[in-house]
Amino acid sequence: MKLLERLLRNDRINYTLTNRIPRTTLTRFMGWFSQIENPVIRDASIAVWRLFADLDLTDARKQSFRSLHDCFIRELKPGSRPVDERHEVLVSPCDAIVGACGTIRHSMVVQAKGFPYSLEELFTGSRLAAELEGGTYATLRLTSSMYHRFHAPHDCHVGRLTYVPGDVWNVNPPTLRRVERVFCRNERAIVELQLNETRQRIALVPVAAVLVASLRLNFIDVLLHLDYRGPHEIDCDANFAKGEEMGWFQHGSTILVFAPAGFRLDEGVREGTGIRMGSPLMHRQCSHS
Predict the structure, then answer these.
(1) What percentage of the chain has pLDDT greater than the value 70?
(2) Could you say which of 19, 46, 72 is where a domain stops?
(3) Is residue 227 flagged as an active site residue?
(4) Which of 169, 193, 202, 211 could covalently link to 30 via disulfide, CB atoms 3.0 to 4.6 Å apart?
(5) Rounded to a whole number, what is the distance in angstroms from the first to the last CA of the chain?
(6) CA–CA dist 194, 159 (Å, integer)
(7) Has residue 173 been placed in a domain?
(8) Same structural domain for residues 145 and 100?
(9) Is position 35 within any domain?
(10) Which of 188, 172, 181 lies closest to 225, judged by CA?
(11) Of the listed 151, 154, 251, 283, which one is catalytic?
């Protein structure tokens, strides 16, 4: 077992084992397998999960789960994630490890060092990319053992959702350092939020990955997954308070956060650091009428 753990920590081996496989087939299988409500399968699966991940369930609302999937999408005890209520603060929508982050320049951002990608390609159009020019972005990676629900970064209105079918490359660091434009290739949803106070537009982009290709959003009636056939552009009319739950990944993956000019990263947000839902992610630098 220790040998396998060492192998998975090796960048090249990790990349091969999690990408040079039938990604779509295994992702569909995991979607089915994780929801089997059999005590033996559930307990064995969670035990194996604990061997390879730092799974901590002490803050989970319940300690007994129907299936592996039920454990993945667990809710937390009330008060487990205090939300920064300052008006100028945009909070993290999820528990995560911060990846690449910084300023949006010429509609380009960074996936990993030396691997830029275009917001026009990510958003499948130039309208939103133009609105966010000169703004700030952060890549938030959820590991398998983390809390997988995500929440509103501020008081906001959701007016549009765009679902983009795609591949399911892994989105871990070994892959991001080797495969260009992973976030633009993978299945994803572009959620457009308008802040209630300033009317500025924020974009959240949950990105699917191998074994993780289903997304449940509280404000639409469909499950977004590999077999979803449309519509791909969905008009929405949903309001959220800062910290209110918006949805969840079936297992876990990455959320990209994009804010317009006038926002800066919180001083504690740096690549490789951990962040919890509700903690400061960005600050608004100036007021807008």
Answers:
(1) 84
(2) 72
(3) no
(4) 211
(5) 59
(6) 8
(7) yes
(8) yes
(9) yes
(10) 188
(11) 151
